[in-house]
Amino acid sequence: MSRIATVICAAVAVAAGGYWLSLSNSTPAYSLIGSAEAQEADLDTSTVVDMVQGAEDAPVEIIEYASYTCPHCANFHTGAYKQLKKDFIDTGKVKFTYREVYFDRYGLWASMVARCAGPEKFFGITDLIYQGQSEWSRAGGPNEIVDELRKIGRLAGIENDQLEACLQDGTRAQTLVAWYQENAERDGIEATPSFIVNGEKVDNQSYEDFKKLIEDELGS
Predict the structure, then answer these.
(1) What does the pLDDT average to over 172-195?
(2) Order of strands across the sheet with 200-203?
(3) What is the pLDDT of residue 203?
């Protein structure tokens, strides 16, 4: 259990190759979740499940840090990620873990929708969110954006009541932000997408460069 007195408010600026984080103690993202009133509380971040693909005993472990509102992350997931999955994740060579970064309330809402149906549907919903990023993230104000995210959730088969319960869970939102803060501080995450490959931080790069890095780790 950890007592969180301050959380990250992410101010976003576009930089070459990714989004960059600015950490401050201003209004936390979780205070903007629907009508939920998130209060300072004892939060157990161990309740947040890592979303993982691939063999547990794969020789290479890749952890991606990404934001659902980051266009560079969308480019990665609609392009290089698919090749990475085919070549290395599905073949048992890479264990792939996806960890969310919260630049803003919209990315947090998207995360809560993606996680709503559990690990089995997480990556499928994540694909839908990234595929439609340019539409839902520009739908208008907060109400319009959350309505578009609801549509993605329903398209993935989540019932309305379950979807609303996920979106209105202020304690869960607070816990996710605290979990993100712990991860970002521990791994020194300053941009998205960022990757940890067998313990070493790696910036966003072309798939060919990524492939070479993985092959070097595999000794091939």
Answers:
(1) 93
(2) 51-53, 94-100, 60-66, 194-197, 200-203
(3) 85
Query: Does residue 153 lie within any of the structural domains?
Result: yes
Q: CA–CA separation, 156 vs 151, rounded Å? A: 9
CATH number at residue 175: 3.40.30.10
Residue 220 lies in a domain: no
Q: What is d(CA 108, CA 68) in angstroms, rounded to the nearest whole number?
A: 8
Residue 106 pLDDT exceeds 60: yes
153-182 residue pLDDT tens: 999 999 999 999 999 999 999 999 999 999
61 neighbors 213 (Cβ within 8 angstroms):
no
The answer on pLDDT for 11 being more than 60 is: no
C-alpha distances (whole Å) from 83 to each of 95, 105, 174, 208 are 14, 30, 34, 10
Which residue type occupies 16? A
Q: What is the pTM of this model?
A: 0.82
Q: Cα 36 to chain center, whole Å? A: 21
Q: C-alpha dihedral over 172, 55, 203, 135, to 10 degrees?
A: -50
125 compared with 5, residue with greater pLDDT:
125
- Residue 109 domain boundaries: 2-27+47-214
